[in-house]
Amino acid sequence: MDVEDTISAVATAVGEGGIGIVRVSGPKAMTIAERLFCSATSKNIADAPGHSALYGHVVESDTRKCIDETLLLIMRAPHSYTCEDVVEFQCHGGAVPLRKVLEATLKVGARLAEPGEFTKRAFLNGRIDLTQAEAVMDIIRSKTAASLQVAVQHLSGNLSQQIKEIRQALLYMIAHLEAAIDFPEEDIEELSARKVKEGIEPILAKLGKLVSSAHSGRILREGLKTVIIGKPNVGKSSLLNALLKENRAIVTSIAGTTRDSIEEYVNVQGIPLNIIDTAGIRETEDIVEKLGVAKSRELVSGADLILVILDSSMPLSPEDRQVIDLTRSQHGFVLLNKSDLPAQLAVEEVRDLVGQWPIISLSLETGEGMAELEQSIVDEVYEGQVSSEAVYVNNVRHVHCLNQAQHHLQEALHTIEQSMPIDCIVIDLRGAWESLGEITGDTVGEDLLNQIFSQFCIGK
Ligand code: GDP
Fold first, then answer.
1. Is the minimum distance from the CB of 236 to ligand 1 under 6 angstroms?
2. What is the per-residue pLDDT across 376-402, written as a single tens digit (0 to 9) for each?
3. Which atom from ligand 1 is nearest to the alpha carbon of 234?
4. What does the pLDDT look like over 71-109, one tens digit per residue?
5. 295 and 258 inside one domain
6. Is residue 38 part of a domain?
7. Ligand 1 centre and the CA of 427: distance in Å?
8. What is the residue range of 177's domain?
9. What is the domain-level CATH number for residue 139?
10. Ligand 1 centroid – CA 233 distance (Å)
11. Is the preceding peptide bond at 27 cis, omega within 30 degrees of 0?
12. Which of 127, 148, 169 marks a domain boundary?
C-alpha cells in the first residue's frame, strides 16, 4: 500500500438509500474536491475550515456537467478518520450517481481503495491500534446490543489498555534483568530472578482472565451456535417459532454452511443465538432419519449448545434415546416439552441418561418455562458472571496471541526454577512481550495486516 496515493470509494451500502457517500482520503483529497465541486454559494474549499460542509454540485471535471447535488464534508489532516485530508461527497443514495461520482474522483487522480484501506491508514498513521481497527469491523457486523457494546469497548481501547499495561510491566522486568546482566554479581542475579517470578504471577493471572473471557466474547461476536433436536412432533418448530416471536431482532437469515440447513439469529437478552435450523426442524420428519446419523453427528458436534426436546406427555421412546445418545458427548439442555399435558415421562430415567445436563420443564403451548430457558442460556454464555464493565476478548487471533504469551511466561518461570542464566529469562519475557504486541499491532507483519484488513468492506 502506498500512503502517498489518494484513495476513493463508495462508503455507503450498495442499493437505494436517502444518501450515499463517496469518501476520498490522501494528500490530493482537497485538489480532487476542487476539481469536482461546484459551490452553490461561491465558497472556496481552500477557505473552508476542517469539519465543515459546503453545499453545491459534483460535476464532471472535463465537461463541467452536473452529476448530482452534494454536500461536501471537509476534514483536514490530522483530524479525520485516516489522519489524512479527507473529503466526503454526500450525494443521493443510488448506485448510478454514486458510481459516476466515484469514477469522477478516479479520473482526477484518486485510486480505488482496497477493502479496509481507510481503517488501515488510521492504523498506520497511529490514530488507532489493531484491536481498535478490528473493533470497527465488529461494530459493523454486531448482531445484538450486547455484541455492539463489546465492540465499542474495544474501539475505545479498553483491551489495548490492558495489553499495554502488561507489556509495560514486562518491559520493566526485561530492563531490570538486562541491567543485572551488565553487572553480574551473583546476589543481584538471584534477587532479580525472584522479583521477576513475583512479577510474572499476577501477569499470568490477568492473561488467564482475558483468555477465559473469550468464551463469552466469541459468542457475543459470532453467536451461540445452537442446534434444536428431537424426534418428530416433540415441538421443535414450536420452540423455534417461540424464540423467533419473542425475540424479534433477527439479524439475518443466511444460507448455512450446509445445504440442509439455514441459520437464523435470534436475540436472547443480548446473546445472538445462531440457530442451525435443520431441514428436519421445520418439517415433521425425523431429523436423524432425514439427515442420517453421520450428518446429524456432524451438525451436533459443531454446535455450542444442543437443545434436546422430549415430549413429556409420552413415555421415553427408543427414538428419544437415539437423540440423547447422539448428543451425549456435547453440552446442552434437555427440554421436557408439553408440560401442560399430563406427564408420562419418567424424569429420573432422563436424568440417568443425560448426566449433568440441566433439565427444563417447558410448555410451548402456554409459554411456561421459556423465561427459565432464556435465563439458562444467558448463564451458560456468561458462566454466571454478567458484567458490563468486563473486558471480553472476542477474537480468535487475540486468544492465540494471549496463549502464546502465557506459554512464554510459563517458560520463564520454568527457566527461573531451573536457575538457568538470566539471558534465558529475558528471551522468554521478550517472547511474551512480542506476542502481546501482535494483539495491538505493535509487533505485527505486513502479511497479517493485509489478511486482517482484507476482511473489511470497501469504503471502510
Ligand atoms: P416438531 O415436529 O418437533 O417440529 O413439533 P411441532 O413444533 O410441529 O409440534 C408438534 C405438535 O405438538 C403441534 O401440534 C404443536 O401444536 C404441539 N405442541 C408443541 N408444543 C406443545 C406444548 O407445549 N403443549 C401442547 N399441548 N402441544 C404442543
1. yes
2. 998 888 875 556 667 889 888 999 999
3. 3
4. 999 999 999 999 999 999 999 998 999 999 999 999 999
5. yes
6. yes
7. 63
8. 133-213+393-441
9. 1.20.120.430
10. 6
11. no
12. 127
